[in-house]
Specification:
Blueprint lengths: L1 E5 L2 E5 L26 E2 L2 E2 L7 E9 L17 E3 L8 E6 L5 E8 L7 E6 H7 L7 E9 L1
Parallel strand pairs: 5-9, 6-8
Antiparallel strand pairs: 1-2, 3-4, 5-10, 6-9, 7-8, 7-10
Length: 145
């Protein structure tokens, strides 16, 4: 135990009484990720190879200047925004109700509304026939990264 004065405040330093000097302190073991959760890497989830699938609601957007990658946004490109997939990942987006599909490249982040899994460029949404509705139930399949 030591005592010293610091700027007119008396500070006492002591070992906590619940730790014995003779017994080593046990460090907790880090728990593994729960079963079913995907491990995450530096640039998003790290799915085990291609074929990783997701499902949910797709929306589309047609305005913007720059994407999260820094490239100019072009609504006529076959691109999309996803919250976690690494940039450059190619994804097959298939409408659940009619089976139409497109392949897009992830170059932006979003959507940020609950239940939505992907934001498509205007061109990709037109090719899926969903511009009139604005939203569509889709399945996503990761093709490559």
């Amino acid at each position: 135990m030591g005592t010293f004065d610091h700027w007119q405040a008396k500070i006492t330093i002591a070992k906590p009484s619940f730790i014995s000097a003779k017994q080593p302190v046990k460090q907790p073991v880090a728990a593994a990720a729960p079963i079913g959760e995907q491990p995450y890497g530096l640039h998003g989830p790290d799915p085990a190879g291609t074929g990783h699938a997701m499902k949910g609601i797709a929306s589309f957007y047609g305005k913007g200047e720059r994407t999260a990658t820094g490239e100019a946004f072009n609504p006529q490109d076959m691109t999309a925004a996803h919250r976690t997939l690494p940039f450059g990942t190619r994804v097959r987006v298939t409408r659940v109700d009619n089976g139409d599909s497109v392949i897009v490249r992830i170059n932006d982040r979003g959507p940020f509304k609950p239940g939505r899994v992907i934001d498509l460029s205007t061109k990709a949404a037109e090719d899926l026939g969903m511009t009139g509705m604005g939203l569509a139930a889709v399945n996503l399949e990761v093709l490559d990264r």
